[in-house]
Amino acid sequence: MASRAGPRATGTDGSDYQHRERVASHYQMSVALKSEIKKLNIAHAVVWFLVAAQVLVSQLNLVSHKVVASPYQWEYTYLLSIIPTVFSFMALPKNNISYLVISMISGGLFCIGPILYGGMEMFPVAQQLYRHGKAYRFIFGFSAVSIMYLVLIISVQVHGWQIYYSKKLLDAWFTNTQDKKKK
Protein backbone atom coordinates (compact mmCIF):
# COMPACT_ATOMS: atom_id res chain seq x y z
CA MET A 1 0.00 0.00 0.00
CA ALA A 2 1.49 3.31 -1.04
CA SER A 3 1.16 6.69 0.59
CA ARG A 4 0.25 9.92 -1.20
CA ALA A 5 3.88 10.78 -1.62
CA GLY A 6 4.71 7.50 -3.29
CA PRO A 7 5.92 4.14 -2.10
CA ARG A 8 6.58 3.50 1.57
CA ALA A 9 10.00 3.74 3.02
CA THR A 10 11.69 0.40 3.49
CA GLY A 11 11.23 -1.16 6.89
CA THR A 12 7.81 0.37 7.52
CA ASP A 13 5.74 -2.39 5.98
CA GLY A 14 4.94 -3.92 9.38
CA SER A 15 7.71 -6.49 9.34
CA ASP A 16 9.74 -4.56 11.91
CA TYR A 17 7.57 -5.68 14.84
CA GLN A 18 10.37 -7.80 16.28
CA HIS A 19 12.34 -4.69 17.23
CA ARG A 20 9.49 -2.89 18.96
CA GLU A 21 9.31 -2.60 22.71
CA ARG A 22 6.90 -4.79 24.61
CA VAL A 23 5.24 -4.37 27.97
CA ALA A 24 7.15 -6.34 30.59
CA SER A 25 5.36 -9.45 31.80
CA HIS A 26 5.25 -8.35 35.44
CA TYR A 27 3.36 -5.19 34.42
CA GLN A 28 0.86 -7.26 32.47
CA MET A 29 0.51 -9.62 35.42
CA SER A 30 0.06 -6.69 37.79
CA VAL A 31 -2.85 -5.31 35.78
CA ALA A 32 -4.53 -8.71 35.50
CA LEU A 33 -4.12 -9.49 39.21
CA LYS A 34 -5.36 -6.06 40.27
CA SER A 35 -8.49 -6.65 38.24
CA GLU A 36 -9.08 -10.04 39.87
CA ILE A 37 -8.47 -8.66 43.36
CA LYS A 38 -10.93 -5.82 42.73
CA LYS A 39 -13.59 -8.34 41.69
CA LEU A 40 -12.92 -10.43 44.80
CA ASN A 41 -13.03 -7.32 46.99
CA ILE A 42 -16.44 -6.48 45.57
CA ALA A 43 -17.63 -10.06 46.14
CA HIS A 44 -16.39 -9.84 49.72
CA ALA A 45 -18.14 -6.51 50.21
CA VAL A 46 -21.42 -8.10 49.08
CA VAL A 47 -21.01 -11.03 51.50
CA TRP A 48 -19.98 -8.65 54.27
CA PHE A 49 -23.01 -6.46 53.61
CA LEU A 50 -25.34 -9.46 53.87
CA VAL A 51 -23.81 -10.58 57.17
CA ALA A 52 -23.87 -7.00 58.48
CA ALA A 53 -27.52 -6.67 57.45
CA GLN A 54 -28.43 -9.83 59.33
CA VAL A 55 -26.57 -8.68 62.45
CA LEU A 56 -28.07 -5.19 62.26
CA VAL A 57 -31.63 -6.40 61.67
CA SER A 58 -31.33 -8.84 64.54
CA GLN A 59 -29.73 -6.41 66.99
CA LEU A 60 -32.17 -3.60 66.27
CA ASN A 61 -35.15 -6.00 66.44
CA LEU A 62 -36.43 -4.73 63.10
CA VAL A 63 -38.11 -8.06 62.43
CA SER A 64 -39.06 -11.02 64.58
CA HIS A 65 -36.37 -13.55 65.51
CA LYS A 66 -38.57 -16.13 63.82
CA VAL A 67 -37.97 -14.37 60.49
CA VAL A 68 -34.27 -13.56 60.93
CA ALA A 69 -32.37 -15.61 63.49
CA SER A 70 -30.03 -14.02 65.96
CA PRO A 71 -26.45 -14.07 64.68
CA TYR A 72 -23.87 -16.64 65.65
CA GLN A 73 -20.83 -15.40 67.59
CA TRP A 74 -18.48 -15.67 64.63
CA GLU A 75 -20.57 -13.21 62.64
CA TYR A 76 -19.65 -10.35 64.97
CA THR A 77 -15.92 -10.91 64.49
CA TYR A 78 -16.44 -11.47 60.76
CA LEU A 79 -17.65 -7.88 60.54
CA LEU A 80 -14.01 -6.86 61.09
CA SER A 81 -13.19 -8.51 57.76
CA ILE A 82 -13.97 -5.27 55.97
CA ILE A 83 -10.61 -3.94 57.22
CA PRO A 84 -8.47 -6.10 54.89
CA THR A 85 -10.68 -5.17 51.95
CA VAL A 86 -10.25 -1.46 52.68
CA PHE A 87 -6.47 -1.88 52.83
CA SER A 88 -6.57 -3.88 49.62
CA PHE A 89 -8.53 -1.16 47.83
CA MET A 90 -6.04 1.42 49.15
CA ALA A 91 -3.03 -0.64 48.01
CA LEU A 92 -4.04 -1.18 44.40
CA PRO A 93 -4.03 2.31 42.82
CA LYS A 94 -0.45 3.22 43.77
CA ASN A 95 1.07 -0.27 44.15
CA ASN A 96 1.48 0.23 47.89
CA ILE A 97 3.27 -2.89 49.12
CA SER A 98 2.75 -2.07 52.82
CA TYR A 99 -1.02 -1.86 52.50
CA LEU A 100 -1.14 -5.07 50.50
CA VAL A 101 0.88 -6.92 53.15
CA ILE A 102 -1.40 -5.54 55.88
CA SER A 103 -4.38 -6.67 53.82
CA MET A 104 -3.00 -10.19 53.48
CA ILE A 105 -2.12 -10.59 57.17
CA SER A 106 -5.36 -9.09 58.43
CA GLY A 107 -7.23 -11.20 55.86
CA GLY A 108 -5.99 -14.31 57.57
CA LEU A 109 -6.80 -12.91 60.99
CA PHE A 110 -10.15 -11.20 60.43
CA CYS A 111 -11.51 -13.26 57.52
CA ILE A 112 -10.25 -16.82 57.69
CA GLY A 113 -10.13 -16.95 61.52
CA PRO A 114 -13.83 -16.16 62.10
CA ILE A 115 -14.81 -18.47 59.24
CA LEU A 116 -12.96 -21.41 60.80
CA TYR A 117 -14.46 -20.63 64.19
CA GLY A 118 -17.91 -20.31 62.60
CA GLY A 119 -17.60 -23.70 60.97
CA MET A 120 -16.79 -25.26 64.33
CA GLU A 121 -19.44 -23.26 66.20
CA MET A 122 -22.23 -24.28 63.84
CA PHE A 123 -21.16 -27.91 63.36
CA PRO A 124 -23.29 -29.41 66.18
CA VAL A 125 -26.36 -27.54 64.92
CA ALA A 126 -25.70 -28.69 61.35
CA GLN A 127 -25.18 -32.25 62.54
CA GLN A 128 -28.50 -32.15 64.38
CA LEU A 129 -30.24 -30.74 61.30
CA TYR A 130 -28.92 -33.38 58.93
CA ARG A 131 -29.32 -36.33 61.31
CA HIS A 132 -32.71 -35.53 62.79
CA GLY A 133 -34.11 -32.91 60.43
CA LYS A 134 -34.66 -30.42 63.24
CA ALA A 135 -33.80 -26.77 62.84
CA TYR A 136 -34.46 -24.14 65.48
CA ARG A 137 -33.13 -21.00 63.83
CA PHE A 138 -34.44 -19.68 60.54
CA ILE A 139 -33.67 -16.92 58.08
CA PHE A 140 -36.74 -16.17 55.97
CA GLY A 141 -38.03 -19.70 56.44
CA PHE A 142 -34.77 -21.46 55.60
CA SER A 143 -32.53 -23.17 58.11
CA ALA A 144 -30.08 -20.57 59.42
CA VAL A 145 -27.25 -23.08 59.70
CA SER A 146 -27.64 -24.11 56.05
CA ILE A 147 -27.60 -20.51 54.86
CA MET A 148 -24.64 -19.60 57.05
CA TYR A 149 -22.66 -22.65 55.89
CA LEU A 150 -23.31 -21.50 52.33
CA VAL A 151 -21.98 -18.07 53.32
CA LEU A 152 -18.93 -19.77 54.88
CA ILE A 153 -18.21 -21.77 51.74
CA ILE A 154 -18.43 -18.69 49.53
CA SER A 155 -16.35 -16.64 51.98
CA VAL A 156 -13.58 -19.23 52.22
CA GLN A 157 -13.27 -19.24 48.45
CA VAL A 158 -13.33 -15.46 48.14
CA HIS A 159 -10.78 -14.91 50.90
CA GLY A 160 -8.57 -17.76 49.78
CA TRP A 161 -8.39 -16.34 46.27
CA GLN A 162 -7.87 -12.83 47.65
CA ILE A 163 -4.84 -13.95 49.62
CA TYR A 164 -3.51 -16.06 46.72
CA TYR A 165 -3.84 -13.27 44.16
CA SER A 166 -2.43 -10.74 46.61
CA LYS A 167 0.64 -12.93 47.07
CA LYS A 168 1.05 -13.22 43.30
CA LEU A 169 0.65 -9.45 42.96
CA LEU A 170 3.20 -8.89 45.68
CA ASP A 171 5.63 -11.12 43.79
CA ALA A 172 5.01 -9.14 40.60
CA TRP A 173 5.61 -5.87 42.42
CA PHE A 174 8.81 -7.19 43.98
CA THR A 175 10.01 -8.27 40.53
CA ASN A 176 9.40 -4.72 39.39
CA THR A 177 11.34 -3.18 42.29
CA GLN A 178 14.20 -5.66 41.88
CA ASP A 179 14.50 -4.72 38.20
CA LYS A 180 14.70 -1.03 39.14
CA LYS A 181 17.42 -1.67 41.73
CA LYS A 182 19.57 -3.51 39.17
CA LYS A 183 19.63 -0.49 36.85
Can you describe this structure?
With 183 residues, this protein is mostly helical. The protein has one domain (33-174). It has 5 helices and 2 strands. The chain has helices spanning 25-59, 73-78, 82-91, 97-132, 144-182; strands at residues 138-139, 142-143. It has a two-stranded antiparallel sheet with strand order 1-2. The model has no long low-confidence stretch (mean pLDDT 87).
Brief synopsis:
With 183 residues, this protein is an all-alpha fold. The chain has helices at residues 25-59, 73-78, 82-91, 97-132, 144-182, and strands spanning 138-139, 142-143. It is built from five helices and two strands.
What structural category characterises the helix and strand content? Answer: mainly alpha
The description of the largest β-sheet is: 2 strands, antiparallel
Q: What is the gyration radius calculated from CA atoms?
A: 25 Å
Order of helices and strands: HHHHEEH
Distance between the termini: 42 Å
Percent of residues in helices comes to 55-70%
Instruction: Trace the largest sheet across and list its strands.
Output: 1-2
Which term fits the overall shape? elongated
Mean pLDDT: 87
Beta-strand percentage range: under 5%
Q: Detail the poorly predicted runs.
A: none
Total count of helical runs of at least 4 residues = 5
How many strand elements?
2
Q: What is the domain tally?
A: 1
